Amino acid sequence: xxxxxxxxxxxxxxxxxxxxxxxxxxxxxxxxxxxxxxxxxxxxxxxxxxxxxxxxxxxxxxxxxxxxxxxxxxxxxxxxxxxxxxxxxxxxxxxxxxxxxxxxxxxxxxxxxxxxxxxxxxxxxxxxxxxxxxxxxxxxxxxxxxxxxx
Amino acid sequence: xxxxxxxxxxxxxxxxxxxxxxxxxxxxxxxxxxxxxxxxxxxxxxxxxxxxxxxxxxxxxxxxxxxxxxxxxxxxxxxxxxxxxxxxxxxxxxxxxxxxxxxxxxxxxxxxxxxxxxxxxxxxxxxxxxxxxxxxxxxxxxxxxxxxxxxxxxxxxxxxxxxxxxxxxxxxxxxxxxxxxxxxxxxxxxxxxxxxxxxxxxxxxxxxxxxxxxxxxxxxxxxxxxxxxxxxxxxxxxxxxxxxxxxxxxxxxxxxxxxxxxxxxxxxxxxxxxxxxxxxxxxxxxxxxxxxxxxxxxxxxxxxxxxxxxxxxxxxxxxxxxxxxxxxxxxxxxxxxxxxxxxxxxxxxxxxxxxxxxxxxxxxxxxxxxxxxxxxxxxxxxxxxxxxxxxxxxxxxxxxxxxxxxxxxxxxxxxxxxxxxxx
Lengths: 150, 423
What we know:
The complex is a heterodimer of chains A (150) and B (423). With 150 residues, chain A is of the alpha/beta class.
């Protein structure tokens, strides 16, 4: 192969690498409906449990840093991405940053009611609950929030 | 986003002083890239030091800490070498200008994506961002939080540079604003592109070639996993390999140390880089990697003191490796099943490797061996995994390959565009 054709082929291969690596979305983002896209990304981590994000944000607004919030729900244990209790718990932990988030369901769906002892609050998503020593302080269509009676 | 941008400015100023002190060959955009990379390292170190001294994080405490580092670095400025640059080729400036405009547009798109919404990646929510948020609330690294048994699943053993980078921006704002935290990913991507542009400019002597390589590597430098450890690891790791490759040992070794402070994979990259130097017969340079080992050491000690376990080393590692080696089928099936990213990219890169095999083997042994050894470490992690191997491969395979692709792509492009031009 001559030096010229070798050089031309080298440049073509370099262009092929660049073209194959190209990420078109970094251009397309200029022309898409960004308001709608932003809204969908905001909900994306929580979409498998509709209402969850708003419910937990409301719980956050009614609790303080240092509180311990137990998460109750009729959801079953399932891999993190399947929308079960783990999905709820992992995401609630982030949204409630600054509070200790306490699980009430363990391995194999085994209830862990003893964990309530650690909690200052119980957030019950998609359920209603009465817990001795706790009083209801807020309710929405997605659940209730209980606080340890003072 | 003004407070976060001001925090980035403080990062750049501190980092620039460090870049000029550590890298006597730094010039042009390399100073900017190194400034961002060293600056984030300095910021994270300040927050860690404040925590260890029980000083609550505040704008003034962080500002004083970073200013002190900048002043110390300025005092340590040594006589600088004239930047080693080939005589630039006589060529029209327009192609380079157009290519750089493409870089700016693509990075602008990445910036919009990264900051359009609160960071949405699950690993940010479950790990990187979760830790950063807890530390921000505590105004310090919260050891009780890391030691809490309920937090065993959040990789408490991971190094803290990235969460602390998020905290740096949050301290500047005085509030947690997770929509702005994508800026950190953008900053790391930009930093790597600045390094790539200058290193290629000095190597090729062509603005056009340097701009082309920078444009080609935007998608590799700008990690699609916003808010995750991939961005900093790729930026520090690739910058380290490129700097060490050209003989800039001090800044390269510091970059390696910062890679190890970003993700555990950075620790194995130190070993991989040392192996690359040995094979390239750069024996003396192996000892000059000492900052790479020294920088992550305090975290490793703290991790041990606070009993923060690494899941890969839980239980019997040997038994798991033996089991996976004796029955490799699930692992091989997982590799065959799960996504490696853009297949056409890997095909084109493989073609580039084959086309430049001889010059690659002759002059790129350091990078090739470092990448290969790092890859072997990744396979080793899959063999030692305590998790279901299918699950582990599914959720990490594509991401870890992006750790290796930028350095490999750079050397292949260099050999395609420079070696052939020289011939």
